[in-house]
UniProtKB/TrEMBL annotation:
<dbReference type="GO" id="GO:0016020">
    <property type="term" value="C:membrane"/>
</dbReference>
<dbReference type="InterPro" id="IPR030381">
    <property type="entry name" value="G_DYNAMIN_dom"/>
</dbReference>
<dbReference type="GO" id="GO:0005777">
    <property type="term" value="C:peroxisome"/>
</dbReference>
<dbReference type="InterPro" id="IPR001401">
    <property type="entry name" value="Dynamin_GTPase"/>
</dbReference>
<feature type="compositionally biased region" description="Polar residues">
    <location>
        <begin position="613"/>
        <end position="628"/>
    </location>
</feature>
<keyword id="KW-0175">Coiled coil</keyword>
<dbReference type="GO" id="GO:0008017">
    <property type="term" value="F:microtubule binding"/>
</dbReference>
<feature type="compositionally biased region" description="Basic and acidic residues">
    <location>
        <begin position="629"/>
        <end position="640"/>
    </location>
</feature>
<feature type="compositionally biased region" description="Acidic residues">
    <location>
        <begin position="18"/>
        <end position="31"/>
    </location>
</feature>
<dbReference type="InterPro" id="IPR027417">
    <property type="entry name" value="P-loop_NTPase"/>
</dbReference>
<dbReference type="GO" id="GO:0003924">
    <property type="term" value="F:GTPase activity"/>
</dbReference>
<protein>
    <recommendedName>
        <fullName>Dynamin-type G domain-containing protein</fullName>
    </recommendedName>
</protein>
<dbReference type="GO" id="GO:0005874">
    <property type="term" value="C:microtubule"/>
</dbReference>
<dbReference type="Pfam" id="PF00350">
    <property type="entry name" value="Dynamin_N"/>
</dbReference>
<feature type="coiled-coil region">
    <location>
        <begin position="357"/>
        <end position="384"/>
    </location>
</feature>
<dbReference type="InterPro" id="IPR045063">
    <property type="entry name" value="Dynamin_N"/>
</dbReference>
<feature type="domain" description="Dynamin-type G">
    <location>
        <begin position="57"/>
        <end position="354"/>
    </location>
</feature>
Length: 778
């Protein structure tokens, strides 16, 4: 049946209505999608600000611009934004990182900028572009006169504009390559500071690194050299070759342009984002109304950027003699780079949304728990509870000290342990009068990082090994002659006294430095127990955080006790060393009598052989101060035969008598330092020195164990408790700094309340964005 005009009109009208409904649905869907996108960017911008302000453990995805001062870094950032806001030119123009939270808003015909102040990051003050430029210039001038000259704290600016992309860009200070030499030390220091700042920013795994290179040969990796130290595979790096318009005229052959546009893998390896570099040009000239301005508005600046892009493509096609492919065109121009970064960042945003919500919930729980703990601390700020906390801390501290001395593995050795080399560096070495040290490799456990009782035992073992290996210092003939002196009743020589004088002087000079070195080393080991104990207390939740005055008092009392105990123990050891080197007791000093007797027997046999082999009359005397003569000695030889009648029945041995006379002649009556006398003195000195050394080793180790180590166990608790109770009786408010603590806790409470509210609001924002993203495809 043929339809009438009315029926046809009705069907057409229904079709138009259906199309209008579909279009309305699409517009509504696009509007919802755009609304979700805006909320997504707002949420991430606030997340980035929260991470900067409260140092939370999550980072919002952002584009980090890295380049040298002359790479056109700030100019490229302005081209990406679509308007000019900062100083561009030679020298250092950025001394603080500038974070730009850009959001596309078609309703903003002029850039709407808000500066987040350092004093209160929770608010953003709307400012004009000249005001923001003045603020950045003032910050640069302030830091230029500052000793650090650069600051890691970011200047955060939020921008809404119809030409803005949806991007978060962090513009970092330009890297510097200073000239060598002493004259450029200031610039070299600035270069190190900038590189350290940029490297710290690149450590954030969520940041996309925009690496700028101003070179026509990809073999020159000026900026990539630093970037690849953080991102070796360039897996989160976009490489951009700037100032393309100045490089195109430098190529004389089409093959050079091909290599530049498609660098071989050998020169630009890795898995960089986008697959290959981008190439950009930014027209020179500033926006303004003055005579020096080239562009009268940001719209003219934007048109100049587009025109520059088309001119670059035309120049490249002319050089190559062919048209650029679609893939090659997608890498040339600021607009292509901007679209790529916007899509890449948006994908990162959407991928991170499901992961951000659990992190926010975790931080919110942590913030709530901290707030609850602070409220509990504020309620505990009364006299009785503070005293209880102080006494509990005292007991816990002593428990940790005892545990460290007995041995434990709770404290990490890599953080608190010391190898023998480190211990010698900070605690001193055992060095004798010869200046030589025992190689640390000869000591057991020398390479192990020890602390506590294990370190004390190793130090004492090294002391025994070093002192036990000490030999008697060399003895000169002058020392022997000077030690003989003159007796008060005769002018003969007493070589036993001479040996004692030399031995005790050598022993005192040799062993006294070791005593001071041992005290200093063991005091260093004992003082190291304090920070390790504090670490263990913090780990077990027994640390008194916020009570700095009380903790300093405990530290002072402990260090004073350690120093006074070491000094008292060293004085006891010094008294023992003085008594041992002041009076020689043969039963104590002459430990190895058998060895000495064997030596003297062999010496006597050698002397007898020497006397028999030398003819009489050949020996000559050397008078060194005695007034005896031959006849006096002959008379003295005959006196025992008449003055001792009890010995008449004993047969006389002329050989023995001759040996006795010769021995007396060489040791008592004559000051001629014969080899026999010198050997006797050497033997006696070595024996006495050896006896003193053995006694010094045993007594010193015993005294340090009894009077240095043991007081930590049996005297320190009472001393600390006495000092604690004395402090409680003096001024409890001063000891625990209650007024300051109450103020700081209140301040911290307010900060945590603000952080909790912002975390709660952010969590709701991301949950809403996640629900919208699940319903719409952005």
């Amino acid at each position: 049946m043929k339809k009438g005009p009315t029926a046809e009109w009705g069907e057409g009208r229904r079709s138009e209505v259906a199309e209008e409904d579909q279009e309305d649905e699409r517009e509504e869907e696009d509007g919802s999608s755009l609304s979700a996108s805006w909320k997504l960017y707002e949420a991430y911008n606030e997340l980035h600000g929260l991470a900067q302000e409260f140092e939370t453990p999550f980072d919002a995805p952002a584009v980090l611009v890295v380049g040298h001062q002359t790479d056109g870094k700030s100019a490229l950032v302005e081209a990406l934004m679509g308007f000019q806001f900062n100083h561009v030119g030679g020298g250092t123009k950025t001394r603080r990182p500038i974070t730009l939270h850009m959001k596309y808003n078609p309703a903003c015909v002029v850039p709407v900028c808000r500066l987040v102040p350092d004093a209160d990051p929770s608010v953003a003050n709307r400012m004009s572009l000249p005001e923001i430029q003045a603020y950045i210039e003032a910050e640069n001038m302030r830091l230029e006169s500052d000793p650090c000259q650069f600051s890691e704290k970011e200047i955060i600016i939020r921008v809404e504009y119809k030409n803005c992309p949806n991007l978060t860009i962090i513009d970092t200070p330009g890297l510097v390559i200073p000239a060598p030499g002493r004259r450029n030390r200031t610039l070299q220091g600035q270069a190190r500071a900038v590189e350290a700042l940029v490297r710290a920013k690149m450590q954030h795994k969520e940041f996309i690194i925009l690496c700028l290179e101003d070179c026509s040969d990809w073999s020159n990796a000026t900026t990539r050299r630093i970037v690849m130290q953080i991102d070796p595979e360039l897996s989160r790096t976009v490489v951009v070759s700037t100032k393309l318009d100045t490089k195109i005229p430098q190529f004389s052959r089409a093959a050079d342009v091909e290599v530049f546009l498609r660098p071989p893998a050998c020169t630009l390896d890795g898995f960089l984002l986008g697959g290959s570099p981008f190439f950009t040009s930014v027209p020179s000239g500033r926006v303004g109304s003055g005579n020096e301005a080239v562009y009268r508005s940001n719209e003219e600046f934007k048109k100049a950027i587009c025109l520059r892009e088309m001119e670059d493509i035309a120049s490249l096609e002319e050089k190559l003699g062919r048209e650029l492919s679609k893939e090659e065109r997608s890498r040339i121009g600021v607009s292509r780079l901007r679209s790529f970064l916007e899509e890449l960042l948006q994908k990162r945003y959407m991928d991170s949304v499901p992961l951000i919500i659990p992190l926010l919930e975790k931080e919110l729980r942590s913030s709530t728990r901290k707030l609850r703990d602070i409220n509990q601390e504020i309620s505990n700020l009364d006299e009785t509870k503070l005293k209880e906390k102080g006494r509990a801390f005292h007991d816990s501290f002593l428990t940790k000290l005892s545990l460290l001395l007995k041995g434990t593995v709770v404290a990490p050795p890599d953080k608190f342990g010391e190898s023998l080399l480190d211990e010698r560096t900070t605690g001193g070495t055992f060095t004798g009068t010869d200046g030589l040290q025992l190689p640390h490799k000869m000591m057991p456990n020398a390479g192990m990082r020890l602390y506590g009782g294990a370190q004390y035992h190793r130090a004492m073992a090294e002391f025994r090994l070093v002192v036990g290996a000490v030999k008697c210092p060399p003895i000169t003939r002058e020392e022997i002659v000077n030690a003989c002196g003159v007796e008060d009743i005769h002018d003969g020589t007493n070589y036993s006294r001479t040996a004692c004088v030399i031995a005790v002087a050598k022993a005192r000079d040799t062993f006294e430095p070791f005593l001071h070195q041992l005290g200093f080393r063991l005091l260093h080991i004992l003082k190291r127990l304090l920070p390790i104990s504090m670490y263990l207390l913090q780990k077990d939740g027994e640390y008194l955080s916020g009570h700095e005055v009380f903790l300093r008092r405990v530290e002072t009392a402990f260090n004073s006790f350690a120093e006074s105990t070491e000094r008292a123990c060293r004085d006891k050891c010094m008294e023992d060393l003085v008594s041992t080197t002041r009076y020689v007791t043969w039963s104590l000093h002459n430990k190895n009598r058998a060895g000495l007797r064997q030596f003297l027997d062999s010496f006597a046999g050698a002397e007898q052989f020497s006397a028999n082999s030398v003819p009489s009359g050949v020996q000559q005397e050397s008078y060194l101060g005695s007034n005896d003569n031959k006849s006096d000695r002959l008379k003295a030889d005959s006196k025992p035969n008449h003055s001792a009648p009890g010995y008449d029945s004993i047969p006389c041995n002329p050989t023995a008598e001759t040996r006795l006379v010769d021995l007396l002649d060489s040791t008592l009556w004559n000051r001629r330092l014969a080899p026999s006398s010198e050997r006797i003195v050497y033997a006696l000195v070595h024996q006495i020195f050896h006896g003193i050394k053995e006694h010094f080793l045993v007594s010193t180790e015993l005294k340090f164990n009894c009077f240095f180590l043991m007081p930590v166990v049996d005297k320190l608790p009472a001393l600390l408790r006495e000092d604690l109770e004395l402090a409680f009786g003096d001024d409890l408010d001063h000891i625990f700094d209650i007024t300051q603590l109450r103020h700081s806790l209140g301040q911290r409470k307010r900060e945590l309340e603000i952080e909790s509210k912002r975390l709660q609001r952010l969590k709701e924002k991301f949950r809403e964005v996640n629900e919208q993203l699940s319903s719409y495809c952005i």
